[in-house]
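Support reply, case 0932

Customer input (verbatim):
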Amino acid sequence: MTWSAAQYTAFERERTRPVRDLLAAVPTRDVRTAVDIGCGPGNSTELLVARFPGAMVSAIDNSPDMLAAARKRLPNVRFDDIDIEHWHDSGPFDLILANAVLQWIPDHRRVFANLIEKVADGGTLAVQMPDNLDEPAHRLMREVAAEGPWAAKLAPASRSREARHDAAWYYELLRESCSGIDVWRTTYHHPLAGGAVGVVEWFKGSGLRPFLDPLDPTERDAYVARYTSAIANAHPALADGSVLLPFPRLFIVATR
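Our regenerated output:
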């Protein structure tokens, strides 16, 4: 799956607010080593450095375009091209930050266990994940994929949307290995200019990637046209032409 740092950061203010809220909930302590996994273009890493200026901060991602943007933004931070599922650094880290990335990885029971093992005693795993698979925008991605001539080609993208778990599931998963767990869910409402087109541009930087990447240019244009029409029906524009997009997110701050 290819990622575009420019497309993602077109909505940087909206995408950065959740990680700012997440870092604000990390217990104040002496953080000496911190890592941002799935760092994207470095907006989350920049906040991590600002929140813990005395820490040795590193970051990983598996998108060359995202890493290039991150290195340009923060030339003094080490950014490594590593997939989270193949990240073997045992740490331990005082803080592991995973902002809007773990939703792309299956088998959360295994993933969370592996991450907690890398957290130092008294350290924190801070996670934020979109919790929006049942929202109209995501449901329509799957419906347009299933109903078009590209159905077979896009079937893997729809199947990859493994149902995420609720707050209680993550609490139960982590409570045996953690001394404190803070879990909450927040729905942000993002005003997006351009009506349905603005919503589509938002998701081109994230959730639409698995559906667009497998298509040739002609198919991609047709898919986007159908999806845009469906979004216009699901999210009618406000009087000023904008759409107020609801976007639920799940937050987990687990202290070992």
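We compared this against your earlier run and they match. Two observations from our side: The chain has one domain: 5-255. The domain at 5-255 is CATH 3.40.50.150 (Rossmann fold). Please reopen the case if you see a mismatch on your end.
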